[in-house]
């Protein structure tokens, strides 16, 4: 695209310059492939940031959406919405939760989780313990409460005054966690893999420590599965890898295969904390959004996509280790299922641009980490193709460093 400024924004744009955009406009997608306005094709190892987990335009979801488009788009949550019940039953079936609240994004799901935890501690458990512990490098969203929960200063810059009620602890630091728990603490909120924060994996012994703390002090465990959920890490939800049974789980990105929808899932004891009138959303759980969710969940069941992510993730990891592991630019390759980070000893923005030029799309996780998020139906051939481009791009970076 021409006429673009240094920040990736077109000079005559009518949009806020909130995103440093790549100089590409994508116009069509099918499976793992994307096409730009000039007809160039790309292999998509980003999936719209872990959203299009079934690939682009998956038929099962498309067919349900089209049928719903011809029937009913929106009513209001003042009516029963049978599709919401059906979608919730499916989510409950595949998680440790008993009740679901539908919203429209990850931030909204986390916002609901924060509200529910406070309300439970205030009105049901009547402990008054409302402070929530979150972790350095975490990411929980862009609303005022969720950016405050986020353990990264850059997300908060200029947005003061921020809400109170959060305390931050270094990730995987047991001593610091123990020291941070007070009479005020009511919940611990975390990601199983800090994705935006650099693909930082939760240590199993830290997970154990968290469970112990929750049991000992009556804390609620909130797991943000907005990016790690929906099969991404090789399980329906990433906390299953750790044997955790969270009180609250949040989901969004992959939940509607690209249709905007979020959900907060919680254990039965929390159900009564959100009575009529306590929380709501005009668009939360419309028949249209629920068609996307049901289509997505049924496709996951039918095609065993979590298992597939596990299998393909192992293959991708093995190929990356064997073909990239020895390069001097590569510090570490880590991840879970099809959420994989390649940490380099230099900024990776140049590699990202070179890969785009070569027809491979991925995203970063912080300045030095390449983040790979192929869809869960990715083939071995597509993985081979991506690894080949990565080898080329990283070798070039090594030569020019
Ligand atoms: C993307 C993300 C969010 C925010 O989701 P939005 O839909 O952008 O509001 C929250 N938590 C995690 C872990 C995420 O990856």
Task: Write down how many β-strands occur, each being a DSSP E stretch of 2 or more residues.
Answer: 17
Listing every helix as H and every strand as E from the N terminus to the C terminus, the arrangement reads EEEHHHEHEHEHEEEHEEEHHEEHEEEH
Low-confidence stretches: 1-5
- Which sequence of strands runs across the widest sheet? 4-12-11-10-7-5-6
Catalytic activity: N(2)-acetyl-L-ornithine + 2-oxoglutarate = N-acetyl-L-glutamate 5-semialdehyde + L-glutamate
Binding site for pyridoxal 5'-phosphate: 106-107, 139, 224-227, 282
Subunit structure: Homodimer.
Pathway: Amino-acid biosynthesis; L-arginine biosynthesis; N(2)-acetyl-L-ornithine from L-glutamate: step 4/4
Report on the structure:
The chain has 401 residues and is an alpha/beta fold. The protein has two domains: 127 residues, Aspartate Aminotransferase, domain 1; 232 residues, Aspartate Aminotransferase, domain 2, CATH 3.40.640. Helices cover 35% and strands 18% of the residues. The protein has a seven-stranded mixed sheet, with helices on both faces. A hairpin with a 2-residue loop joins strand 13 and strand 14. Helix 3 packs parallel to helix 8, helix 9 packs parallel to helix 11 and helix 10 packs across helix 11. It starts with 25 loop residues before the first strand and ends with a helix. The site of pyridoxal-5'-phosphate has 15 residues, from helix 4. Its EC number is 2.6.1.11.
How would you sum up this structure in a few lines?
It contains eleven helices and 17 strands. With 401 residues, the chain is of the alpha/beta class. Residues 1-5 have low confidence and may be disordered.
């Amino acid at each position: 695209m021409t006429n673009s400024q240094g920040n990736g924004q077109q000079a005559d744009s009518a949009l806020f310059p909130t995103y440093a955009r790549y100089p590409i406009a994508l116009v069509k997608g099918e499976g793992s492939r994307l096409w730009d306005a000039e007809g160039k094709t790309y292999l998509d190892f980003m999936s719209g940031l872990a959203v299009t987990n079934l690939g682009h335009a998956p038929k099962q979801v498309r067919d349900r959406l089209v049928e719903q488009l011809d029937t009913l788009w929106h009513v209001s949550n003042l009516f029963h919405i049978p599709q919401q019940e059906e979608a919730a039953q499916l989510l409950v079936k595949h998680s440790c939760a008993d009740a679901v609240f539908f919203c429209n994004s990850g931030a909204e799901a986390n916002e609901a989780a924060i509200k529910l935890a406070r309300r439970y501690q205030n009105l049901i458990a009547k402990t008054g313990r409302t402070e929530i512990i979150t972790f350095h490098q975490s990411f929980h969203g862009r609303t005022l409460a969720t950016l405050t929960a986020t353990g990264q200063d850059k997300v908060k810059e200029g947005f003061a005054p921020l809400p109170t009620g959060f305390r931050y602890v270094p990730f995987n630091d047991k001593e610091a966690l123990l020291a941070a728990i007070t009479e005020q603490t009511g919940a611990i909120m975390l990601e199983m893999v800090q994705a935006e924060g650099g693909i930082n994996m939760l240590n199993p012994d830290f997970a154990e420590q968290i469970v112990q703390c929750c049991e000992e002090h009556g804390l609620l465990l909130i797991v943000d599965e907005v990016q790690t959920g929906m099969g991404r890490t090789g399980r329906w939800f990433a906390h299953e890898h750790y044997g955790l049974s969270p009180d609250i789980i949040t989901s969004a990105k992959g939940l509607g295969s690209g249709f905007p929808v979020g959900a907060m899932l919680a254990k039965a004891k929390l159900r009564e904390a959100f009575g009529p009138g306590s929380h709501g959303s005009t668009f939360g759980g419309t028949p249209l959004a629920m068609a996307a969710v049901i289509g997505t969940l049924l496709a996951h069941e039918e095609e065993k996509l979590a298992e597939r992510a596990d299998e393909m993730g192992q293959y991708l990891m093995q190929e990356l280790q064997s073909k990239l592991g020895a390069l001097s630019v590569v510090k570490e390759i880590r991840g879970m299922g099809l959420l994989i980070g390649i940490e380099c000893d230099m900024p990776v923005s140049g590699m990202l641009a070179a890969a785009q030029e070569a027809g491979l799309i991925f995203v970063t996780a912080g300045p030095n980490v390449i983040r790979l998020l192929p869809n869960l139906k990715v083939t071995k051939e597509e993985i081979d193709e991506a690894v080949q481009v990565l080898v080329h791009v990283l070798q070039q970076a090594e030569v020019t460093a």
